[in-house]
Specification:
single chain, 780 residues, mainly beta, five-stranded antiparallel beta sheet
């Protein structure tokens, strides 16, 4: 079968000649009919191709075979190209032994027998691709190839099918015998035809003049009868032409049908022009569903030169022929593309990876000598936009293809051929669903326990915003995925709100899961008691914590006076520094977990009465036998006076008694105020006695004369008291007024005689050290 057909004879100038420079750049390419993406294969440059008549495809060896004019003298060659690398395998003259100015037509490749078939003049033949040698098989029932229109091939039955302007001819490929020769009415009504080996049916486009628009038909081989499948939209279908003179290699080469078939995809593919011929570019490649005829796709075809009708001053990119590899589902095309510096167009998208609703702006840049450029934007094969170098769209989806056509010369289309830009294929960025989850360091906590929460954002973007909430109330603080909090009540609920900056996030705001806090709080309480609440100033008061609940073994007690901390943190607190109205309280800090510091249930307010202050004159000195009045200064209202000792006082219960002591005496006054506060003071009355030292003593004698000493009645302060023998040797020395000499020295009794004594003491009257001396007789 023949899955391809000549598309266009595009390398023919208006006068019928093609310059050598214009025929240098021929490539094999793949063409995706669903998006019009053309991809050149291999090195290209099939030299001097000026026209292509017919082609077919060898899917066994993946070879593209076409008949073309490669010579300036008009000779035709049979070209075989490796479809994998685009390299030409062979290009012999064809026919090799006949008039090379008469080409073979209707090439069909039988993949079952690896045989290439075609028409030469009025003869059916098979052809050697490597040599171009033509082997006649039989004759056809028409007089001239001038009436040959199209061919097809039935691969199962090995039937060669051809169409003339009047009939449908079916021949056995092996023998050349004519099986059917049936008329087609009206004459020349089929623009082209293709045999679908998947459905075992011949299809074609009917362009009868009697029809208001072309229609898609199936054709019965035995009768040539056409059966309507569907009427097509109004269009100008290419085809239904003829081949003219071959003299000098130039002639009227009309399109023989721009058709092929995708048997795997079930599509009948053909080229047609919209009725509006005012546009410079208006050709489309249609794909019809087999067998319903529904238009599966209509793609703008940017590779045709039918709309070009002036001398070519710059290069373009043109498809001159295509075939389908139905074993692999690949469509191949012959592509003419001239490579030299010339006007060009490049488009740049603001972005080619998008999210739904994104605005994408395309800018077209015309380069080179592009005078008077006009722009036609194309989206998925359909014209869009305006004649502007900018095109914007907010409704693009994945796989959408955008390019622009540069027409350098204005609307007349006579200066240059249109030039296609690069193609931008839109890719959808993956749609994100933003989410946030939170974790914590603890959910079972004490009331003041610090807990850290961490948010994990998914598709949050580069700089997401975090908003933390406790019980639905936003907590002011840093915008951070980390949150710390320590003021808990049982049942508190924590969650996080994430505001994503991810461009493709479906949801811009998302809420985390909630964490419910379990708070364990032990109740703590205590009271305080005082040893007294009404005291006199300066009195000691002890305060003690009482009825302590859940304090633990090592509770801490913070005592406070008027809110100021004091004490040692112990269970009790003693002070003598309170003032009237001072309030004493305590704060308990339990040593047990999950407790909070608690203040005592009450505050003790102290009543502090003033203690009388007793002030007495300095110590008083009197001589023995004289008197002195004691005259104190006392604060407050005194209701009781008491002097002690009472001896030598004329009245110990009055404020100013008269004292007549016989020896130095210290008197203390104790007073009581009307509020029961007691104050006291002391005064010393010194009784002065002149110094009198005994002049004799008898050691061991009974009574007071058995020891030499200072008389106790003197009440003096001794600095030093010493006794010397006649030799000046110290036999006794003391600084204690109560000590005396017993008449011995180093444990030995001293002889009777006179001894010298010396005394250093503090004089009561002057208060200064004084010396005295004398003698004493030791009598035994």
């Amino acid at each position: 079968m023949k899955p391809c057909r000549v598309l266009l004879f595009t390398l023919i100038l208006l006068a019928g000649e093609v310059s050598r420079s214009e025929a240098q750049y021929n490539w094999l390419a793949t063409l995706n009919y669903k998006n019009m993406i053309l991809s050149r294969i291999g090195p290209g440059s099939f030299p001097n191709v000026t026209s292509v008549l017919s082609s077919t495809y060898d899917q066994n060896h993946q070879r593209y075979i076409f008949q073309a004019n490669l010579d300036t003298n008009g000779f035709f060659h049979l070209c075989t190209v490796d479809a994998l690398n685009g390299v030409i395998i062979s290009s012999p003259l064809c026919p090799a032994t006949n008039n090379q100015l008469q080409p073979t037509q209707g090439l069909e490749y039988d993949n079952a027998t690896d045989t290439l078939y075609g028409m030469l003049g009025t003869g059916f033949c098979w052809i050697e691709p490597a040599t171009g040698v033509v082997h006649p098989i039989g004759t056809v029932p028409f007089t001239s190839l001038q009436y040959f229109i199209a061919s097809a091939f039935d691969a199962r039955d090995h039937w060669y099918i051809c169409e003339t302007n009047t009939s449908l001819v079916v021949m056995d490929a092996a023998s050349g015998n004519v099986i059917y020769n049936t008329p087609i009415a009206p004459s020349g009504s089929l623009a082209d035809m293709k045999f679908d080996n998947a459905t075992r049916q011949l299809y074609g486009i009917d362009v009868s003049d009697s029809l208001s628009s072309p229609q898609f038909d199936s054709i019965t081989l035995a009768t040539g009868e056409k059966h309507l499948i569907t009427a097509l939209p109004l269009m100008d279908v290419q085809g239904n032409g003829y081949i003219g003179s071959y003299s000098s290699g130039a002639g009227d080469y009309y399109d023989q049908g721009s058709y092929t078939i995708d048997e795997q995809g079930g599509k009948y593919i053909f080229l047609a022009t919209d009725p509006d011929t005012s546009a410079c570019v208006n050709q489309y490649l249609y794909a019809l569903d087999i067998p319903t005829g529904a238009v599966s796709s209509k793609m703008f075809f940017p590779y045709s030169t039918l709309y070009y009708n002036g001398p070519r001053l710059e290069p373009g990119e043109y498809v001159v022929n295509y075939c389908f590899d139905n074993l692999r589902g690949v469509m191949y095309a012959l592509n003419w593309y001239e490579v030299f510096t010339a006007p060009s167009i490049t488009i740049y998208p603001s972005q080619d990876t998008i999210c739904p609703g994104d605005l994408v702006t395309f800018e077209a840049i015309a380069n080179g000598p592009a005078l008077y450029p006009s722009f036609q934007w194309v989206l998925n094969g359909q014209f869009v936009g305006t004649n502007s170098d900018l095109y914007a769209n907010t409704s693009l989806t994945n796989g959408d293809t955008v390019y622009c056509i540069l027409i350098n010369g204005g609307a007349a289309c006579t200066v240059t051929a249109p030039i296609n830009s690069n193609r931008i294929v839109i890719r959808n960025a993956p749609l994100d669903t933003a989410s946030v989850s939170i974790s914590d360091t603890a959910t079972s906590v004490c009331p003041e326990q610090m807990v850290q929460f961490t948010a994990l954002a998914v598709h949050g973007g580069l700089s997401p915003t975090y908003q933390w909430r406790v019980n639905g109330i936003t907590i002011n603080g840093p915008d951070s995925p980390v949150f710390k909090y320590n003021h808990w009540a049982n049942g508190d609920v924590v969650n996080c709100v994430l505001y994503t900056t991810s461009h493709c996030a479906i949801n811009k705001t998302t809420f985390s899961d909630s964490i419910v806090m379990q708070v364990h709080a032990l109740p703590t309480s205590m009271g305080i008691v005082a040893s007294a609440t009404t005291i006199c100033s300066g009195d000691n008061v002890t305060f003690t914590a009482s009825q302590v609940l859940n304090g633990g073994d090592s509770a801490s007690f913070q005592w406070q006076v008027d809110g100021q901390n004091t004490g040692q943190g112990l269970h009790s607190f003693t002070t003598q520094s309170l003032a009237n109205g001072d309030g004493v309280s305590c704060i308990l800090t339990s040593s047990l977990g999950c407790t909070a510091p608690v203040a005592a249930t009450d505050t003790i307010v102290m009543t502090v009465n003033p203690t009388p202050v007793v002030t007495l004159a300095p110590d008083t000195i009197i001589t023995r036998g004289s008197s002195v009045r004691l005259d104190p200064s006392v604060t407050g209202t005194i209701v009781s006076w008491q002097w002690t000792p009472v001896m030598a006082l004329n009245d110990p219960s009055v404020a100013q008694p008269v004292a007549t002591p016989v020896s130095t005496t210290t008197y203390q006054l104790t007073v009581s105020s009307d509020e029961g506060c007691v104050g006291s003071g002391k005064i010393k009355v010194v009784v002065y006695t002149p110094l009198r030292i005994p002049n004799a003593f008898t050691p061991g004698a009974a009574g007071h004369n058995g020891l030499f000493r200072i008389p106790p009645s003197l009440q003096i302060t001794v600095i030093g008291f010493s006794v010397f023998n006649r030799s000046g040797q110290v036999v006794f020395s003391t600084a204690n007024a109560g000590d005396g000499w017993d008449g011995t020295f180093k444990g030995q009794p001293q002889p009777t005689g006179t001894y010298v004594w010396e005394l250093e003491y503090v004089d009561v009257l002057t208060g200064k050290p004084t010396r005295a001396s004398g003698t004493v007789e030791l009598i035994r």
